[in-house]
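Section 3.1: Structural characterization of target chains.
Under the original work plan, the team committed to producing a structural model for every single-chain target entering the pipeline before any wet-lab resources were allocated. The record below documents one such target. The sequence was received from the expression subgroup and is listed exactly as submitted; it comprises 73 residues.
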Amino acid sequence: MKVFKFTSMIFCLFSLLGLFSSCEKEAKSEYDSFIIYVDSVQLSDNISANIPFDIFFYGTVGTNGCYEFSHFS
């Protein structure tokens, strides 16, 4: 009985220790802004007044595929 009690106490201790050490209070997200250089621009040939049109910008975002586009300003 003593072995079971000791084993369960050790298990509870490690469980609580793991719970408190693995949870962060705030999510730590660090973002670095940088300029994306535009290689080419594509838009429609016929543009009329008061009619919206799309403009497509093409360029490389980052060097290793771990970057993503956030916003356009």
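Helices lie at 2-22.
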